[in-house]
Design a protein that fits this description.
- The protein has 6 helices and 7 strands, in the order αβαβααββαβαββ.
- It has a single domain (about 15-25, about 30-235), classed as Rossmann fold, CATH 3.40.50.
- Helices cover about 35% and strands about 15% of the residues.
- It has helices at about 15-20, 45-50, 65-85, 95-115, 165-180, 200-210, and strands at about 35, 55-60, 120-125, 140-145, 180-185, 210-220, 230-235.
């Protein structure tokens, strides 16, 4: 059975995973206004607040109470990993799958703790419209949403094509409106042959035509077996 999804699942990454995938060092974050978009159950805000950073996240799931999100996160981690492992074209060895699952649970626990105690740092909203002023942030981080949730036909995970190229361009234009620097990960196709996700190049061309500097930067983190095209997009003001 081929792995596919019909909605964005409530998955998160640990602090170390986030910094590695965005090719950042802790020192790169000091003194900057930071947004995680969409934040999901990442541990980025939780650990960032513990380090005294000015950081917040935005996600449509933040409309729900902590208990609801904790239950949803645990259920979707379990169900999604079971379905992934049932697809022989995608499955990892069991040790790798168990380690991945454990990191998802660790990130979820960190998120829920911060979500309960710092609710004001988690804003309910969704791309391509964000409730922030222009240049509200120095750094916007967007992981495991754009490109990943394109349709299977375009190397993503979705059974439908709602998050098409037009959506991606609108979403990234909104990210660069609110942030002076934007980093987006991943840029590889998650399904099908190893390749760059097909929306990456036309999106980069569109944003560059808007007058921004757009580059591919090697990520410092590898997830599962995705070792090729393991870059992030970095967008800055020209």
């Amino acid at each position: 059975m081929t792995f596919s999804l019909d909605h964005v699942i409530f998955f998160g990454r640990t602090w170390n995973e986030c910094l590695s995938m965005y090719a950042l060092d802790e020192r790169d974050l000091d003194g900057r206004r930071i947004l995680d978009c969409p934040g999901g159950p990442d541990a980025l805000v939780a650990d960032g607040l513990a380090r005294g950073l000015d950081i917040q996240a935005v996600d449509p799931q933040y409309a729900f109470e902590p208990d609801v999100l904790e239950e949803r996160g645990r259920t979707e981690i379990g169900d999604s990993m079971k379905k992934w492992q049932e697809d022989p074209a995608q499955a990892w060895d069991q040790k790798q799958a168990d380690e991945f699952t454990q990191r998802k649970l660790e990130a979820l626990d960190s998120f829920i703790s911060a979500y309960r105690s710092h609710r004001d740092r988690f804003i309910e909203a969704s791309l391509p419209e964000l409730p922030f002023e222009d240049d509200a942030f120095d750094l916007v981080l967007s992981g495991h949403f754009l490109f990943l949730y394109a349709s299977i036909d375009h190397g993503g995970l979705m059974s439908h094509g709602q998050l098409d190229l037009d959506f991606h361009v609108k979403a990234v234009r909104e990210l660069v409106r609110v942030g002076r620097e934007v980093r987006i990960f991943p840029t590889f196709a998650t399904t099908g042959p190893a390749r760059r996700q097909p929306y990456v190049e036309p999106l980069m061309e569109a944003i560059a035509a808007d007058g921004f500097q757009v580059d591919l930067v090697p990520s410092n983190w590898v997830e599962g077996n995705f070792t090729q095209f393991n870059d992030l997009i970095r967008i800055t003001r020209s």
